[in-house]
Amino acid sequence: MTGSESDSELQAIQAVIAALTPLNNDARSRVIDYVFKRLNLSTTPANAVISPTQIVTPVPGDSQSRPALPRYHDIHSFTQAKQPKSANEMAAIVAFYLSELAPTEERKNTINATDIQKYFKQARFRPFPRVHGQTLGNAATAGYLDSASRGEYKLNPVGYNLVAYTLPGKPDVTAGRNKRGDGKKKQKKPARTGAATKKDSKR
User: Fold this and answer.
1) Per-residue pLDDT tens over the stretch 77-96
2) What is the DSSP string of 125-176?
3) What span, in angstroms and rounded, lies between the C-alpha atoms of 176 and 33?
4) C-alpha–C-alpha distance, residues 62 and 47, integer Å
5) Predicted pLDDT of residue 191
6) Cβ neighbours, 10 Å, residue 41
7) Beta carbons of 144 and 96 less than 8 angstroms apart
8) Would you say 49 and 58 are in contact if contact means Cβ atoms under 8 Å apart?
9) What SS3 class is residue 61?
10) Angle 25-38/3-20 helices, nearest 10 degrees?
11) Which H or E run includes 49?
12) Could you give the CA distance from residue 76 to residue 38 in angstroms, rounded to a whole number?
């Protein structure tokens, strides 16, 4: 799957979730049934999505639907593998790690500001956020987390797919380039001495 394809899938998932959230369960079922018939799709569970290799059900915490993931011994190694480019992506990584990969005594289905502070620091993620609760709110606005209760957030299918399948993304090829895009630093011109010479000649 290319980067543009995965971005399009994430946008589609976000749009579907946004459209279905205000509806009750019966209305959601009717909408999904109609869409499946309208697009001539085979009958699948309403929460199933297409992975790069097969149909999976990306439900955080569901052991039967989890893809085969390498085992990471801590959040630092997992973050290095996923290479997040923003605090929003890092928040999704923390939520994924705690719900899917963390040791049993650390595992949990929701995260809060304390978790952001703890695991961002353990992952050595920079820049380190000053307001950890705001980071969670921003990640929710980006579509990666859902509010579970006051101050608690959980990973949603969009965030799950982001961490499981999309990251690490393509490197930023423009990093370190100047505005001309040639990758070369602009050299400083030597200071002009003509003005000083003229002054000296008048003396």
Assistant:
1) 999 999 999 999 999 999 99
2) -SSPPS-HHHHHHHHHHTTSEEEEETTEEEE-HHHHHIIIII-S----TTTT
3) 49
4) 12
5) 56
6) 10
7) no
8) yes
9) coil
10) 140
11) strand 49-50
12) 45
Q: Residue 26 has which token pair?
A: 């019966």
Query: Which amino acid is it at 85?
Result: K
Cα separation, 28 vs 171, whole angstroms: 38
Q: State how far the alpha carbon of 39 is from the alpha carbons of 24, 26, 35, in Å.
A: 23, 20, 6
Helix (H) or strand (E) holding 34: helix 25-38
Structure tokens at 123: 């992952």
Answer for the pair 48, 196: CB distance below 8 angstroms, yes or no: no
The owner of tokens 């719900």 is: 99
Tokens of 55: 């149909």
Q: For residue range 64-75, list pLDDT tens digits in order.
A: 445 555 677 799
| SS3 state of residue 111 | strand
Residue 71, CB-side half-sphere exposure with 13 Å CA sphere: 2
For residue 180, what are its two tokens?
């001309």
